[in-house]
Amino acid sequence: MKKKKSFWLSYDLGLKGDYEGLFSFLDTVAAIECVDNLAYFSYECYTNLPYDVQIHELLQKNVSIDINKDRFYLIWKEDNGNIGGKFLSGGRKRSPWEGFGKMIAENESDIAE
Questions:
Q1: CB within 8 A of 83, min separation 6: which ones?
Q2: Helix or strand or coil: residue 17?
Q3: How far, in Å, CA of 61 to CA of 44, rounded?
Q4: Is the distance from CB of 33 to CB of 39 less than 8 angstroms?
Q5: Cα distance between residue 23 and residue 10, in whole Å
Q6: Range of 28's domain?
Q7: Number of domain units in the chain
Q8: What backbone torsions phi and psi does residue 53 show, to the nearest 5 degrees?
Q9: Per-residue pLDDT tens over the stretch 44-98
Q10: Rounded to an integer, what distance in angstroms lies between the CA atom of residue 73 and that of residue 8?
Q11: What CATH number is associated with residue 28?
Q12: Contact present, 85 and 75 (Cβ < 8 Å)
C-alpha cells in the first residue's frame, strides 16, 4: 500500500548532533524549513507499518542518533482529520516558559455577590 503523507519533524540535537546526516535526510525528502528546528515534508509510505515507525526507520538509516541526547518529534495528520504526534527519540523536558505565567486563584472572582 502506497500513501503520500505530510509530516512535520521537530529536532533537538544539541551541539554535537549529526546535523550533516539530518540535513542530508531533510534535503533528500525535499523538506521545507518552517522555523528553527522544525521541517515540513511529504513522504510516500510504502508499507502497512505506522507512519511514525517508517519515518523513524528512515532517520535511523541516515542519522547517527544519540538516544540519550537527541530528540525527534514527528507530527502528522491522520486520515480521520485528527493530528498525531510522537517522540521518535528522546522525550519531554521541562518547558522553558514554566513559571512565567501568573497563577489564577480558583476562588477569585470579579463578580459582586
A1: 75, 76, 77
A2: coil
A3: 17
A4: yes
A5: 13
A6: 3-89
A7: 1
A8: -65, -45
A9: 988 788 889 999 999 999 999 998 999 999 999 888 889 999 999 999 988 888 8
A10: 8
A11: 3.30.70
A12: yes
